[in-house]
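Hi R.,

Here's the chain you asked about this morning:
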Amino acid sequence: MTAKKTNTSSKKWSQEVTEKSNALDLEEGIFTWKEPRKIATSLKNSAETSKRRKSSPFRSAMSMLVFYINRAGKNLDQEQKQILEQAKDELRRLYNKIK
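And the predicted structure, written out as tokens:
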């Protein structure tokens, strides 16, 4: 049985992925912004201009947002978590992926 990583190393790993994603160049502090539409637009622009992504722009942008919510979710305050959930809806609207 292998030892579990400590929270510190896990946080550093997910923080590094968020800050230095190999697929997307994110604007600094994007996940702390208070405007869901602005977050979604920035993710869309990053995904569409990336030459390193391995999936469609929509999937790359949504994956990065979901990754952040899932990894930082327990440390986010409710207001910011709600803003990021709204950003997912905005991203779907920007790509005409509304159900």
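The mean pLDDT is 84.

Let me know if you need anything else.
M.
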